[in-house]
Amino acid sequence: MKSQFKKAFIFDLDGVIVDTAKFHFLAWKNLAESLEVSFSEEENEQLKGVSRINSLQKILEWGNKSISEDKFNSLMAQKNEEYLAFVDRMSPEDILPGVLETLTYLKENNYPIALGSASKNARHILTKVGLTSYFDHIVDGNEVSKAKPDPEVFLKGCELLGVEPEQAIVFEDSQAGIKAANTAHMLSVGIGDKAVLSEADFNFEGFTELTEDTLKTLTNFKK
Ligand SMILES: O=P(O)(O)OC[C@H]1O[C@@H](O)[C@H](O)[C@@H](O)[C@@H]1O
Ligand SMILES: [Mg+2]
Question: If phi over 0 gives left and psi between -120 and 50 gives alpha, with beta otherwise, what is residue 110?
């Protein structure tokens, strides 16, 4: 049965828990440049939180390129191979500052916790950094049909955690993810540049700013 008072936490992965956003950037940049499509931090911002397939579609649109289905599939595989070579070198040292402390506090205080990521590599990355056991449920790119900014990934997380969307607090580093949380009436917490994530209900540079008092403020906040 759902308790209407309980709060639950949903974490995005890339750029929130681990700094894999920089690996996605490097891999997409190499791919875009191989197609002679210019790719800067600005374009990259628009790919954060966006699925692999939609990201490649966007790059092709920006460069006004049309390619065969075979080429499309081989580029997706090539990007993922390059990305996974970076991931292979990851260890618990790659957990972003303050994340472990936040997860430990939430776990000790019995808050339900889910992962809500667009990545098909999410489980592999959580294993690499040793965080799998902190999550009651993991929803990743393999389990959703609609990519962020559609809220499907977070709604699935709520369903599995047994809470209503209004009870969920979402940590996100992408504009697409903040939009998804807002659309579903969840509390959106932007992690990163406030100017970029201006639509979030709360903003923090990183988890080191999230003290126990701040977490209590979030759990008591009514949107
Ligand atoms: O290619 P993957 O690992 O399945 O990830 C899909 C997307 O996952 C998101 O978490 C990232 O922010 C995106 O940059 C990425 O494209
Ligand atoms: Mg992210």
Answer: left
